[in-house]
Design a protein that fits this description.
Shape: globular
Number of domains: 2
CATH superfamily of the largest domain: Glutaredoxin
Largest sheet: 6 strands, mixed
Helix content: 25-40%
CATH architecture of the largest domain: 3-Layer(aba) Sandwich
CATH topology of the largest domain: Glutaredoxin
Strand order of the largest sheet: 2-9-8-5-6-7
Mean pLDDT: 83
Order of helices and strands: HHEEEEEHEHEHEEHEHHHH
Number of helices: 10
Number of strands: 10
Length: 304
Amino acid sequence: MRMTRMNIVASIALLALAAGTAFFVLHAVAVARAGTKRSPSAAPTLANSSAQTQDVPVLYFAKDPEPAPPFLARDLSGNVVSTAALKGKVVLLNFWATWCGPCREEIPEMIKLQAQYKDTLEVIGASEDEAAPEQVAKFAKRAGINYPVIMSSAQLEREYGRVAALPTTFVINADGRVVQKNVGVYPFEFYDMEVRSVMGMPVTARIETFKDTGQIFLKNAARANELPGVSFAGLTPAQKKIALHRLNAQSCTCGCKLTLAECRINDTTCPISSGIANKIVREVAQGRLQPMASTAKATSGNPR
């Protein structure tokens, strides 16, 4: 997993250098290279260049956002950090690591955001480092980090739906609900506009919403009607329902410990989940697979 992440973030860094000043283009490239598939309505993009839109950028937030999974931890200075104490503030929960080049590139942006909105925003860095907290603390001091940094854990990652690439930032509104998940390198201008929008401040952007079908929380993959790299063409609605049921019940064998549907959303490059998923679809189309007997049976093979 660590080498995969390092390869991913290295690719993001190279792409970021080549992307120029068009920050929404950079954003879209970073998300794509981070191995995360979002629905068309969830991925930030450059707006249509017609006279009607006048190139107004679009911000996307989850419709009916879910509560942020609660956590209680101590930061590198020993102070308690808890979601309960952050109600009323916008929170950026930023998963990062000292070895992650794009993460280090993003730190000054997070510092600037924290300083600019110190009364209404709380940035929290969740370090993925395997090094001792003391080493991370030394790095944080040298970098001038002005927000709390906690050490991440398997439980924290699991509750937030797993973190497949770094940096990954969950955007939590003042009501404690997760409205977006940003994967990859993001320019300050984008984060500033996103934070201002969540705070209810005026922005020069169009706001649209999307239904979370795994883009934020992988558990919501069961809501998806389409999956990256899986073609349901030719299936009847009943057959597609059977196929989706199995893809959400059967575990991928790549070692990710996710269902096939979750793996397709979490890592669109995984050849194992792609092969198994498309094989299931073919077998459903041929009438070789029928509806699963029960919910209990369907979920029994999905280790969590």
